[in-house]
Amino acid sequence: MGKLYIVGTPIGNLEDITLRALRVLGEADLIAAEDTRRTRKLLTHYDIQVRLFSYRRENEMRAAVELADRIGEGMNVALVTDAGMPGISDPGFALVAECAARGLGIEVVPGASALTALLAVSGFPVSSFLFEGYLPNKSSARRARLLELAGEPRPVVFFEAPHRIRATLKDVAELLPSRTLVLARELTKLHEEIRRGLASRLLEQWGEPEARGEYVGLIAAAEEAGEAIAAPERLAQEVQELLNRGVARNDAFKIAATKWGVSKRAVYQAYLEHR
Q: To which H or E segment does residue 232 belong?
């Protein structure tokens, strides 16, 4: 019986790969890759000549069964993604689950991760955190999710595509105006960028974001922003500031209530008394 190896690969710099990962990739009978072209570049760099199998989101469920069959027949399969660890916002979970259900051998070979790299460089105290993955594509859904995260007592880590990062920053600036962000792109690469500040400030600094290179960001916890208790006057001021920026009245009450950890009714009452 063969074994499935879950192998972490570099997130940018090709030197960020372990000796164990290189050995496992070189000894595998087959490498299941999210993008065979990108993986081939890595293998060529290290002179590894192993047959590739296309394992991507579009064929993930079907391919998982086929690969598990091969492992059951004695083949050693290494699973890789474009960058980082398979299964973390990338294809991989279906194959792991299929092999686990069949009682097949599974071994993980840890490697680089944009998630842990950002946490380490953030300068935030991180005893715990929330990994959000990709925020919703649609603005309404994204804004609703940000409102749900407004009271989160842990730092929130998220991924974002380059063509959506500016819209996401605008939403954060409006809905979580006092939160510090750490935003990075091209981590470990030649043009690595890491910036810190309020979302509104990052929008001013960055101008038009680069079209290439996915972003990974960290939003400070509610407690780090001091969002705990607010006097009625402050709640009323918060609502008025939101209204002045064009936020709908009902949304303004909801945002202030979530941010300060009070009921929407309390915000409404404070606004009536102190506007």
A: helix 232-244
How far apart CA 185 and CA 167 sit, in angstroms, is 16
Of the candidates 218, 236, 245, 230, the residue with the CA atom closest to the CA atom of residue 273: 236
Write down the pTM of the prediction.
0.77
Q: Which CATH superfamily is domain 115-219 in?
A: Tetrapyrrole methylase, C-terminal domain (3.30.950.10)
At 164-177, the pLDDT tens digits run: 999 999 999 888 88
The Cα angle at residue 269 between residues 266 and 271, in degrees rounded to 5: 110
Encode pLDDT of 12-36 as tens digits: 999 999 999 999 999 999 999 999 9
How is 138-162 classified by DSSP, letter by letter? SHHHHHHHHHHHTT-SS-EEEEE-T
Q: How far is CA 147 from CA 31, 91, 165, 191, in A?
A: 41, 28, 18, 33
Domain limits of the chain? 3-112, 115-219, 232-274
Residue that is written with structure tokens 């922003």 in the block: 225
- CATH architecture of residue range(s) 3-112: 3-Layer(aba) Sandwich (3.40)
